[in-house]
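## retry 2 of 3
previous attempt timed out at serialization; input unchanged, resubmitting
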Amino acid sequence: MEGQERKRFAIDLPNQAAALSLAGEAEANLRRISELTGAQLVLRGLQLHIDGKAQQLEQAAAVVELLRPQWIEGEFISAADLNTNLQALASGRGAEQRQLSQQVLARSQSGKLLRPRTLRQRNYVEAMQNHELTLALGPAGTGKTFLAVVQAVRCLQERRVERIVLTRPAVETAVDPHLRPLYDAFHSLLSPERTTALIDKGVIEVAPLAYMQGRTLADAFIILDEAQNTTCAQMQMLLTRLGENSRMVVAGDPSQVDLPHGQDSGLVEAAKLLENQEGIAICTLTAADVVRHPLVLEIVEVYANKRR
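## retry succeeded, writing output
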């Protein structure tokens, strides 16, 4: 039957680092692309050979090309990256995904280029860039907090703000283990030593939400993490702390509210009340934006279905 004949072509890779990046550990990436597209991918030296029917070839080659900005730099390509790019192709948004892969936000201490990895993550980044107040709602693993820290560090380095303020609904000490994700994000961008120095100087401030009462936060980038566990009164208090030349990001997962039974989440209420307010962006990330291990996506979806 026409169109069912198997064909083959090869893609030349520039160096060994690119080959290793695209193939993945023990060629796991190539096997995954084969599973998802039906094409057969074989790496021979610096040539990637793709074999399959016309549609399979087209889809496999499109995934490889979308990943080009990563493997050309020899970057690690995760299973989440593969899934994200395939989803973009399946939904007819391959061109947007290609533009997304070229949007570099920063370079980590290890040299990794940091980018938004899904289209909704890109919209979230643009919202933070263009709005003084951004609310980000979504499940674990969608990059809500990490991307906020990246944006905060960029603003600090470009001298658009003088300090960064990190807060959570309950923070007992500056070394509270719940703050570890925030510290990890700063360490990846600034190094542990630089982060500690900035905290000592007060350029990065870590404070319990209760300590925000009565303050006006000017020339600052404020991040409220785990915002789903704020009460409505706490949320109103924090939002009204926003001062001149400041930006604020409020991030949380409405499905993980730990408040006493019957008490409304300040994040959920704020998202409803502020939905149509000019100058405020409300970004909703979904399970499709989970960029951790693919099992995290499955776990998120299982629990989401349980709550329906």
